[in-house]
Amino acid sequence: MCRKRLRGQGTIFCLHHVLPLNPKISGFSPNSNLETTPEFLEEIIQLALRRGYELLSLADAVKRIKNPNTHQKPFAVFTLDDGYKDNQIYAQPIFAKYKCPYTIFVAPGIVEGTTELWWRALELIIAQNSQINLEIGNRIFAVAATTDREKNAAWNLIYPALRDAPELEQRKITREFATRYGLDLSALCKQVAMDWDELRVLAQDPLCTIAAHTMQHFLVAKLSAEDARAEMQNSKLTIADKLGMPVEFFAYPYGDEAAAGNRDFAIAQNVGFAASVTTRKGVVFAEHADHLQALPRTMISSRYNKIRYIDTLLSGAPTILHNRFRKINVK
Questions:
Q1: Bridge partners, 18 (sequence order)
Q2: How far is CA 133 from CA 150, 180, 200, in A?
Q3: What average pLDDT does range 136-143 have in this prediction?
Q4: Residue 175 predicted with pLDDT over 80
Q5: How many CB atoms are closer than 10 A to CB 250?
């Protein structure tokens, strides 16, 4: 009975890359926390079914949230951020096997190769070089990066400084950094992300929903209200125009408490999204009907690659503790 109360109405899962395990992976792979394997994705779907969850689209889950007394079974929703090629290659066949709906949140800038995937660029530059020199704001970084230990130390030093920089400055620094070390940022986008033609094909899958993720994958809380609105609205309109279908849902890039707040939830509502998802930890409760622009998600990554961890997260116990026994983590 306790598990039933804590698990709420259901869970919205968040994934990024779905890729086969790479046996050649080195001791330096900081972005591997954004990856899971096709096998583990299938295990999670099987677990949800064993636990009696219904596999719903995000649209159907939102209807369920609005009418919490109409169904007894909990729901599981699968979402993937950014629109990577591997979603189509490795994840789509698994979703098809289980007739499992899924939503992919895309940023047009990533689709078109105009966005700086700065976290991937930083990893690649550190991986390929033995000395890293970079200036962020008033800080100058000059760090050795010969061994895996040194590379991880360099990442742990530089990553938070680059993430915390103002968005436009962050991207300018990334472009200059990439140019200095001979990395083509546009080619990097095109190598890993689906283009519009690939998305048009995927959008024909009746199990698939394509949704918005800003234009340039900006952390909206760091933007002015005007710029945040433009990022949300323009992504909605651009995707609708390119794919010829309405765009109802939105995911805040990064999505944690620092990435989006009440101002941004209000903007998403005003722009016209039916619901928006964060990466704030938690399962979905009936009370989220009043907070549809701030829905929580459960992150799936290599950090939680044991099915017992996912089973524990489905119970709702870890996140209710994390949220200090509050069902709704919205201030």
A1: 36
A2: 14, 10, 41
A3: 94
A4: yes
A5: 26
